[in-house]
Design goal:
By secondary structure, the protein is mostly helical. The protein has helices spanning 9-24, 40-52, 55-75, 77-82, 84-93, 113-134, 136-148, 150-164, 169-187, 191-200, 203-208, 215-225, 232-239, 244-257, 266-276, 297-319, 325-329, 339-360, 366-379, 381-398, 407-415, 424-439, 442-459, 464-481, 486-495, 499-526.
Amino acid sequence: MVLGTIPGTSRYMSGYVKIIQNKEASIMEEAVHYGILSLLPAIIALGLAIWSKRVIESLLAGILSASLIIDIATEGFTHAILYAIPNLFSKIVGHPADSEAGLEGIGILSGTSLPKIFIVVLLLGAFIKLLDKSGGAMAFGDWLTKKVKGEQGAQTATGIMGSLLFTSAYFSSLATGAVFRPIYDKLKISREKLAFILDSTSAPINTLVPVSGWVAYMTVLMEENIPSVENGIVGLFKTIPYNFYNIFMLVFVFLIANKVIKDYGPMKKAEKKAKKGEVDYSEFETGSTDEAKDGTVADMLWPLGVSIVTLVVLGLWNFTLASVPFFKGLGVSSIPLGSRDILILSFSLGLIVAFIKFVSSGLMEADEFLDIAEDGTKSAIIGGMIIVLAVTLGGLLQADAPEGLGAAKYVESLVAGNIAPAILPTAVFIIGAFMGFSMGTSFGVWAIMMPIALPIVLATGGNPFLAAAAVLSGGTFGDHCSPISDTTIMSSIGAGCDHMKHVNTQLPYALTVASVSAVAFLIAGLL
């Protein structure tokens, strides 16, 4: 049931229109959040996920609690109970954005983003299964295993490849995972370790490198919130020395990979189980249980190479070249493709190349190729469902009441005017990290915290680039390790391991780096 068809929602809609009108008139009387209750669904979803290890059910519980809070406030307790289940799924299905009514739109119908993410995951499932079944992935793994020189070499190579694919956090995790999964299995390294390295070289590197797929969004934030910044890319360069969490996390990855820092906590246990062969990842396999074909390294490199080259070329063109004033002056314009479209195109071209190569060489029949691809999409459906639910919950937390919970505005009300200038960078980092972990998004945290933190810093004569870096670092922490973050989910999918095991093994490492980063921000703020 789509929002707006439920009895009584006409009053719901008109009430929201009134809020928007009052906003425009700067006389808003209605609350745009529900106080501490605004954070309750995030607490429920995170708590249940960590306790039960069941992600889908935990996300559904979070969305249900959000729906109940909103409906009790707008329609009353009885209505909320009677329509609890229809409202739950109406939030997931959502509705189109309505600019006239001021409705942002939440759920699958809010735009093309969620359906396109789901398509990306399905294409990934087909792609990985075909590479596995062809024998190309195994052949490439055998070849690469001889080159990487054992466990430390494999883990270091994973970190390098993940860092180099900086044009997309999704593709970094998915492509690197596809390459190294068979290598880790052969060397008896846990897939939880693979997921950690994938995750730690996707979101952090995208935040650090001013030519990543996130550059367009970050440059806008720089230009809108720091008056002295006319070129957003130049502004981003100035944040890099202070972007402590992302820098430290990348360093930490290579220290762990080379055993300069020994594994500890849940990761140590996961590694011991992998060494003893006490692990079973068959549930997460996209490949067939049948014996793979006798493929070659080229059967892996051609499809994957075309996908990577397509992504890098289009990503750099759209998100870097087309946004640099010099290239704008030369008439270089962006291609009308968003980041999701580029991912879909990259995987689709990889599949087309795989079809031509496998069928023309006699490795597979056309019907067999299509059957394997179809089975691969089936194996990826659960991952797609998790992403849809996670993004839905994140949207409910971010949107203002009564359409959403207004969690962002609630945190903003707690922060404003309550932070001393000297400790502002540390406080901004910690608050941003908490928000990012709760909402599973870096972009949402950045959009909320930049307009709050930077005016305070500028008013007190502080360093705006230090504060901006604290915002970027805090948001990335959440995007990196929250169980409801799409990039965290993608890392679990790319590594082929249980999502909550990935979260639990990674979290102590992320908290270690976050603690060191908080101290660094404190020192920088005091200086």
